[in-house]
Amino acid sequence: MTSYRDWQIKEYQAIDSTMTEAHLLLEKTEVASKTVLIAETQTKGRGRESRSWISLKGNFHASLMIRPDISENDWPLLSFVSALSVGRTLQKYIGSNNILNYKWPNDVLLNSKKIAGILLEAEKSSLNNQNWLIIGIGVNLIAAPQETSYPASHMQAETGHALQPLQLLRELLANFDIVERILKTQGFEPICKEWLASAAHVGKDIRVNIKTSHGSQEILGRFLDLDNLGRLLIETPEGVRHALTAGDVYF
Fold first, then answer.
1. Helix axis angle, 165-186 to 188-197, nearest 10°
2. What is the sign of the dihedral through the CA atoms of 37, 38, 41 and 45?
3. Is this structure's pTM higher than 0.85?
4. CB under 8 Å to 118, separation ≥6 — which residues?
5. Which alpha helices (H) appear in 4-95, and where do they start and end?
6. Residue 196: pLDDT above 90?
7. Which domains does the chain have, with CATH numbers?
8. What is a single molecular function from GO for this protein (predicted)?
9. pLDDT tens for residues 37-91?
């Protein structure tokens, strides 16, 4: 184990999933607050809705384990903190000819292609009953999966930069600390403002697939805004407004 700033870093060559390992650690051992797991490869990486996350060597696969010093009701806002941390970290490498956007609820796009994804899961430690938040972050650095539901790419293809995962990790952790501090001291408003400034298709028509008790539903409408809980506000052509907590957005 190594350390950076006040983060404890556990490195793995190959693992089934950093998210799964984080949950297991909380079941069997004491974990320092602000621990991060990073793996060269994952055999069972996963994203939202238990979807498979293809984990190719040379890409970035990490899980941050924290005990946020904010109300648990506000923990979902750390998805936006994480997205901005990724965006701020990558921004210095993408150049003026490339465009970085955020796609609600948890993706980072580069030139309209998915380059990073974020996953939040809560867990209670079996040893001391403390509540933890595990933040999974995957970034395509040198390779991207093919035949995905949304176009994907990687940093090297889009920018020519071949970033090293550990280099990215240190810069990302520094940015995470900065953005999380903004959330703690100033609230969600400045986070929301920065995210919306680079949000994909804000003010434009989108469609959102959401899960319902009867299966799924597609909502078509204009992406208006985010509310103070990070919910997507969408208005249908009939003038009906929805505040969505989760869903898959398509343009």
1. 130
2. positive
3. yes
4. 79, 82, 83, 86, 106, 107, 108, 135, 136, 137
5. 18-28, 78-94
6. yes
7. 2-197 (3.30.930.10), 205-250 (2.30.30.100)
8. biotin--[biotin carboxyl-carrier protein] ligase activity
9. 999 988 865 655 555 556 678 999 999 999 999 999 999 999 999 999 999 999 9
